[in-house]
# Entry
Amino acid sequence: MSAGANSQDRASAALIGIPSRYMHTPVEVVALKDAEAAARLLAALAAELPEDIEFIPG
# Structure
């Protein structure tokens, strides 16, 4: 996980970045292996989350 936060409202957040080239252009590209690795990382992270975690503040 690149970054994580837990606010006082106990709303959890995380950021997973994928390296890219030519960002903000019509031809932005990423390596397929990086996108696939990010998907695997997200799936593994989701599988390890505690059941009582909240993503909606309040």
Observations:
- The chain has a mean pLDDT of 83.
- Residues 4 and 14 are 4 Å apart (CA to CA).
- The beta strands are 3-6, 12-15.
